[in-house]
Write a structure and sequence with these properties.
single chain; 287 residues; two-stranded antiparallel ribbon
């Protein structure tokens, strides 16, 4: 029974951790190309759920096209925000840009509330919600979809950054922005792409997590902050760190909720995060 409980908490932690990892990767992509913390990322999560809700309900699309449309839609909105919200600032001051993302986040949340309202909504799971028994643990199919699609997203991201010319340019900018500028890598195109990828990752997290939570205009705030914490825990800017930081944070939450109290799960996770940062301020994989 103890092992079954432990497995139950383990799968629950992996599910939450995968969502945090997706959001953390979005933070890292923008940070590596623009050098800023993009606080609009938290609202990309809410927007993904809202687009999925409209695609299924108002447009009547099947599940798979609705998912792809929702993720692509958030990516497109992210590009619009970068092009018309951030780029006109023409400021090299990172602090100014960070505060600008805070303002854009508030505006986007207001637009979401205006369009979809303040009432909580529900999304159906990707497949029928009959629990699956794995080694004595009861796991929802939606949790398995979250884990599987997170792995797919990480694989696509890895392929993009290592095999495509645009991805290689983004890695060059992340490694040495000055040298990248000297050889003529277009900074505007790189920033636009990084924002689109961050939006798609946030949107995917929102689409996947809302069937097991609830959907509202501010549902992404707490999830986004935990994704931010996961990125810091792993080492801000490090992709492997974002993945392991997200999974670690999710497991900590689940184990603390199971063996201590669900009331303390957020506190325990952030206390451990603080302890790690006291010992290693750059995070587990930071340079």
């Amino acid at each position: 029974m103890l092992n079954a409980d432990l497995l139950q908490y383990f799968f629950g932690g992996l599910t939450s951790g995968a969502i945090y990892a997706l959001i953390a990767l979005g933070f890292c992509v923008v940070n590596n190309t623009m050098g800023i913390v993009n606080f609009v990322q938290v609202d990309f999560v809410s927007l993904g759920g809202m687009f999925m809700f409209s695609a299924l309900g108002a447009a009547g699309l099947p599940m798979t096209p609705a998912l792809l449309l929702a993720v692509a839609g958030v990516g497109a909105v992210a590009m619009v925000i970068e092009r018309f919200g951030l780029r006109p600032a023409r400021s090299g001051n990172h602090l100014v840009l960070v505060f600008l993302t805070v303002g854009l986040s508030i505006i986007l949340r207001g637009v979401i509330k205006l369009v979809w309202g303040k009432n909580r909504m529900a999304l159906p799971p990707l497949t029928p919600d009959t629990p699956v028994q794995i080694l004595g643990a009861s796991v929802l199919p939606q949790a398995l979809w979250i884990l599987a699609l997170t792995v797919v997203a990480i694989a696509v991201l890895t392929w993009f950054f290592h095999k495509t010319p645009l991805g290689l340019c983004m890695r060059a900018v992340a490694d040495n922005p000055t040298a990248a500028a000297v050889v003529g890598i277009p900074a505007g195109r790189i920033r636009l792409t990084s924002y689109a990828i961050a939006g798609a990752l946030g949107g995917l997290a929102g689409v996947l997590v809302t069937p097991i939570t609830t959907l509202s205009h501010d549902v992404g705030v707490l999830l986004g902050l935990k994704g931010f914490a996961a990125a810091i825990l792993g080492g801000f800017g490090s992709f492997p760190g974002a993945i392991l930081g997200g999974l670690g944070l999710g497991l900590l939450e689940s184990l603390s909720a199971g063996y201590l109290s669900s009331a303390y799960k957020d506190v325990v996770a952030f206390v451990v995060l603080l302890l790690v940062l006291f010992i290693r301020p750059k995070g587990l994989f930071g340079k």
